[in-house]
Amino acid sequence: MDVGAVRLPRFRGANHADDNDNRGFDIAKSVFQVHGVDAGGQVLIRRQLKRRYVLAFFQKLSPCLVGIEACASAHHWSRELQATGSHRAV
What we know:
The chain has helices spanning 54-60, 74-83; strands spanning 2-3, 6-7, 22-26, 31-37, 43-50, 65-68, 88-89. It has 90 residues and is an alpha/beta fold.
């Protein structure tokens, strides 16, 4: 799957992640980091994203739990991610 310049990974032979998968989202000024693991702790994705590709990236993923670091813009990104679907941001 392509999202602009961002290629989405294939999750172990599937087109989407399992609902038990989790992602961590490291917020920065212009480059963000996404880290995803499955229920067993296996790394599924490690990706740097530019700000303009973040929402498009998460829109293409199946619903999951997203952990966001605590910072000034965490509430903003939490609302944005929840608006893309049923992503639960904490």
